[in-house]
Structures are given as C-alpha cells and as structure tokens.
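Summary for the steering committee. The consortium agreed at its last meeting that each partner would contribute one worked example illustrating the joint modelling workflow. Our contribution is presented below. We chose a case with several input lines so that the handling of multiple components could be demonstrated. No manual editing was applied between input and output; the record is shown as generated.
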Amino acid sequence: MTNRASAGRIAAHVVMIGLSFLAIFPVYWMIQTSFRAENEIFSGGLFPAVPTLKNYTDVLAAMPMLRILGNTVVMAGATTLAQVATGLLAAWALVRWRFPGGALARSLIALSWLVPFQVVMIPNYVLASKLGLLDTVTGLVIPNAAAAFSVLVLYNAMRGFPREVIEAARMDGAGNFRILAEVVLPNLSAPLASVSILCFISAWNDYFWPLLLIRRMENSVVQIGLQFFMTQEGNDWGPLMAAATLASLPILALYLVLQRQVVDSFMKSGIR
Amino acid sequence: MTDATITGDRALPGRLPRLRLSAAEPWLYLAPAIAVVAIWTYVPLLQAFELSFYQWNMLPRSTPRFVGLDNYRNLLSLPDMRQAVVNTVLYTIGLLPLSVGIPLAVALLTGGLSGPLRNLYRALIFVPMIVAPIVAAILWRWLLNEDHGLVNAWLSGIGLGKVGFLSDPDVALWTLVWITGWKLIGFSTLLFTAADSAISPSYVEAARMDGASPWQIVRDIRLPLLSPTILLITMMTILFGAQWSFVYINALTGGGPLRSTTNVYHVMWEYGFKTMAAGWSTAAGMLVFAVFGLIAIGCLAAMRRFAVYDE
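What follows is the complete predicted structure of the assembly.
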C-alpha cells in the first residue's frame, strides 16, 4: 500500500516537473537567446558562452523602447485606476440601494463581456477617430475605463459587507459617498488589490485595440511596438528576443514580488 | 426614534425634491460605468447591426450605401467564410484537450501533492498565463523556426525530418492551437487543483472505507464534484478560444498559408481593416455574435442541468 502510494507521488512529481518545464523553458530560451552574440545565436547549448548586452543596446538604438515602456505603464496604470474607480462607484450603487432598473443595469454591465470586440471594432474605430483619439494613449484608456469584471468582483465583495455597519454610519449622519470612502473602502483592500493586479496585467497585455489605434512607433505600447519590431527585423533573433524580454520584464517582476496574489486574482476571475 | 421624527418634520416642505434626488442617486454612481459600456459596447453593437446592411469603405468622405441583405447573402456563399467557420471549430476542438483534458488529468493525478515543491510547481506553471500574447508569439516563432529553431533541431536529432510548423498548411493551424493552449494549460490545472482540493476529504474517506478503488473514487466522487469547473472551463474555451487565437493568427501567419489558419475573427478583421469592407465585416460580426450568443445560452443551460454541487 505504501509502495503504491509513493509510486503515485513520484508519478505526480514527474508530471508536475514536466508541466513546469513546458511552461518555463520557452521563457528561459527567450531570455538566454537575448544574451547571445550574433555568431552564437544558432549554436545549441543551454547557456550563452559569452553573454553580451549587445542585443539590448541594438534594441534601444533601433526603437524608442523606454518611451514605449513608459507609454504602456501610463496606459495600464490609468486603465487600472479608471476601472477600479468606475467599478467601486457602480458596485456601491448596486449594493447600497434596491431600485427599479438596478437589476437591469447590473445585467447590462455583466453581459457586456459577451460582446466580442471584433464585432464592435468598426463603430469603435469610427468613434475614436471622430474624437481625435487615434494614435493616442488616452484613446487606449477611455473605452476600457469600465469593465464588467471589476464591477462584478467589487459588487460581490461589497455584498458581504455587514449592513448594520452601513446603517450605523448613516445614523451618524454620514452621506452615502462618505460611507463608501470611509467605511466600506478600507475593508476592501483584498478584492481591490486583486482587481487592480488583474486589470493592470490584462491592460499591459492587450493587443487588439492598440493594434487598431496606434500608427507610430513612438506612440505605441509594448505589444504593438514588438509587432512593429518583428515586422521590421524579421529574423534578427537576438534583438527580437531582447525586445520581447524587455517588454515582459515589468510583468515578470510584478509576478516575482506578488506571485501569490497574482495567481489568486486570476483564479478568482475565471479565465478571462 | 426622536431623531427620526425631528428630521421628518423638518424635511416635510422640501420632501419632494429630496425624494427625487434620492431616486437619482444610485444612477449618479452607476453613470460612469454605464456610460462607458453604453458608448463603447452597446451603441456600437447597434451601429454594427445597422452597418451590416450597407456597403461602405470606411473613408470619412464616402457615404454608406444601403444594400439590404446583400452582405449576408455574399458572405454565406463565399468559400472564404466556410473555411473560416471550419477552422474556428477546429481551433475550439483543438484547444479543449489543452484547456480541459490534460489539466483535469494532471489535477486528478497530482491532487495528493503537498509541501514546498507543490508551491514551486504552482508558481512555475502559471507563468505562461501572464506572458503577453505577442511575446508568446515571438518566442514560439523562434523555438519552432524551420531552419534554426530548437524544436526542429531536436526533431532532426532523433532522426525525424524538419517540420514547417508555420509554413505547412496541414500543420500551421495546430501550431497556433498549441501556442494558444500553452498559455492555458498551467492556469487551468491550477483551477482544477483548487476545485479538487475543495472536495471534502470525508467523502473520499467514506468511499475508501467502503472499499472503493481509486478509479471508482475518481469516477463517482471527484469527477462529479469537479463538474462545475469542467463545464465552466469548457464553456470559456468554446466561447473565447477562437478570440484568444487571433493574436497568433495575425502576428504569425496572417491567416495563411493558403488560408489554412484563418478563423471568423480574423476574417472580420481582414474585411474591416484590410479590404475596407465595413458592411461585410459587420455582417460577419452579427452572424458570429448571434451564433456565439446561442452557444452561450446553451452552455449556461447545460451548466444548470449537469453541474453537480456539494450541498
């Protein structure tokens, strides 16, 4: 019996090691290729023989990578702030009051994630160009300033908040906004962190809307910058891997620091 | 009590406007979110529906011309569209083993693992999920490169010929399925593992006392109790799998070779922003939206019917 159990445990470890390898090796291969000299790119081996930073200096010379990273930080940060703010306000309305139209409003917000972006892309593009948002970072943020996901997660979190505490605050004469800001908000740090992390990462990784909106390298975000770079440099693998590594660095660093929280916030939200 | 009567008395003259304000108050809080969703999702959805009956090249000076159902008729008779629909189904079917089958098997097999190594595995297998899709596209393009890629070097090392992962029409679609699935396997495994460890150990213990074999425990206890997660991930894969593949199609193959990797979303994108045929693109969008809407309703009904919950 114990023999069989330990055989099972070994099998489990083998499977997990295989899966971990599959997940991490491609990323490792990208990073190690980025440190290889040009004449060493095509030779095998797990490590670069003479690590070099030349690919990185090449990338920084060929494209305004730092500016692009800056654009992306601004875009993802602003999107996150906006989604958290609109999510908080909307969730508070739905939790605080029962009112005619409330359920309808909630379903309208919730169902919006069922509409594929490709279906509405042409009207969105036309509207963005009318508003002068083409090729701007602002234009990347505005349509994503609210999301079903953040509203629903914060709604579920607030629903568990004890009603008596809200009532007590109201008796003390606090207005509804003050109750939200001073009573409810301080108790929401866990769901707020989880929404922010998820929102920041998905904004950072967003591809389709920037693809439509952005024309020039200096206005682009990393995803589209990389796409431009790939189209230009084609099979210049060293610099391409260096650019891809630079583009992933902030998110990988975030993951290194907040690993547990990142995994948990993705698990709570389901796949999307 | 006294407080209430006092404010009640004083509030009497101003009562009506105050009531109205309080009726409007929730809408003030809802306004930002509703405005964004209305302006960027629902109004565009209606506009797309309208556009699908027009012919328009999206140039600001040209006016859309009403063509009735022509866009739909043309789309349905095009071989382009048929190919895209078939491929969309292939993407979805190809993804299911990667997003549901393998992760479920892994979760069932490794459910008993514990200790620090388990946390390390968790941390590692999740990584592809946060890798940007375009980065995933670039690194797999390098690994799978026909002449210098590592995978082809390994394949020729064990005596197999080179594979044109992105250039062979019979293989390219499955390559893109693999890249899409690579991002999901680990995450999906974590979801199944979490659901599996939430199963009350007393059920498993009781079954074991009754002499149930490990396989019987899997079949009669763990699988039924995992059914909500299985159905949820299956539904997400069916609804969104083809959308997840879009990045890889656009960045790696452009729908080729020989249109073997295009899918409905990529076709819509090509009609819209390559051929500048707004009517065709929106008509295709409406058809896709309608079909996926029906599938979503079906999936939700299936979840209600077949999912087993631990009451």
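The two ends of chain B are 42 Å apart (CA to CA). The CA atoms of residues 109 and 214 of chain B lie 11 Å apart.
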